[in-house]
Amino acid sequence: MKLSSYFQADEILINGEFSFLGYVDSSKKETLAFCDTVIYLKKANVNPNITCIITTRDLSVEIEPQKGIVTSGNPRISFFKLHNSMIETELPKVLTEYGVGQNCRIHPTAFISPRTKIGDHVTIAENVVIKDEVEIGDHTFIDANAVVGSEGLLYFEENGKFHFIRHAGGVKIGRRVTILSSAVIVKSVHDSLLTTIGDHSIIGVLTNVGHEAQIGHNCVISSNCVIARRVKVSDDVLIGPSSVIREHVALHKNARVRLGSVVIENVSENQSVSGSFAVDHKTSLRAYHKLKYKL
C-alpha cells in the first residue's frame, strides 16, 4: 500500500509503502505509525519496521530520509481515521490458523468465534464469549460470563465529538491459565503487539485487562482489578483485589500490589506497594498509623 492511495498530494512529503498500521514500537515490517511527540519520533527513527510516519510539519524535518512522510495538524487523529476506515473494509487476520483442540469441554451456551485457536483440554463455561483472533493454550479454564477479545475504550475527539477507535488485533492466552467469572480481556488495537496472559496465571472475577497489556507467567490478578492498556506485568506478580494499574506502568518480577491500590508508576522487583497513589507498603503503613493515631 502506498501513502498516495490514502492521503492528498499536499499532505505527502515523501511517498512510501506500508503493509500494516501500528505504533512506533511495532514488530511488524513495513508499518505506518504516527508521531506527535519528539519521544515517539526518536523511537520511530530507530525502528527499521517503521517505513512510513504521519507527523507534524515541524517534526517532519527530524525524520530519517528513507521513511515515507505524511504531515498533519493532528497526526493521531489522521492515523486513527485511516485505521477505522480500513477496518470497515476488512478486519485483518491475526492468527495463522483456527480451530478447537482435543478433549475440550465447551458449554453449549458459550459463543466461540470461528476465528479462534483453542488448544487441548480447554474448559469454557456458561455464557462465555470468545471473539475473533483469540488464541487459548492447553488446559486453560474460563469461567461463566467471561469475555475474551472484546473491544476496549479508545477514542479521539474532533470538533467536540468523540469518535470510537475500533480494535483490530487479538489476544494470546497461555497454558493452564484461569480466567474467572465476568472477567474481560480486551484485544489489542493492532496485531503487532497482542494482549497476552502468560502460562499459569489467574485473572479474578470482574477484572478488566486492557489492550496490549502483557501479563507474565504465574501471576495472580485478583477480583475487580483494572489493568490498563500497555501495562507490563512480569512473572510471579500478585495484585490485590480492587487495584488499578495505570497505562504503561511496569510491575517487575515478584512485585506485590496490595488491596485497593492505585498504581501510577513502575514497581521494582520484589517491591510491595499499597495505597492511593501506591507507594512502598511499609511507608504506606507508617502514614496510615500516623493519621489514625496522630503520632
Report on this structure.
It is a single chain. The protein has 295 residues and is of the alpha/beta class. It has 2 domains: 3-89, Udp-n-acetylmuramoylalanyl-d-glutamate--2,6- Diaminopimelate Ligase, Chain: A, domain 1 (3-Layer(aba) Sandwich), CATH 3.40.1390; 99-288, Hexapeptide repeat proteins (UDP N-Acetylglucosamine Acyltransferase, domain 1, 3 Solenoid). The chain is built from 4 helices and 33 strands. A hairpin with a 2-residue loop joins β15 and β16. The protein is globular and about 65 Å long. The N and C termini lie far apart (67 Å). The model has no long low-confidence stretch (mean pLDDT 95).
Which structural traits does this protein have?
295 residues, alpha/beta, Udp-n-acetylmuramoylalanyl-d-glutamate--2,6- Diaminopimelate Ligase, Chain: A, domain 1, 2 domains, eight-stranded parallel beta sheet, 33 strands
Kindly summarize this structure in a few lines.
The chain has 295 residues and is an alpha/beta fold. The chain has helices at 38-46, 57-60, 75-89, 281-293, and strands at residues 12-14, 20-21, 31-35, 50-55, 68-71, 99-100, 105-106, 111-112, 116-118, 123-124, 129-130, 134-136, 141-142, 147-150, 155-158, 161-164, 171-173, 178-179, 184-186, 195-197, 202-203, 208-209, 214-215, 220-221, 226-227, 232-233, 238-239, 244-245, 250-251, 256-257, 262-263, 272-275, 278-280.
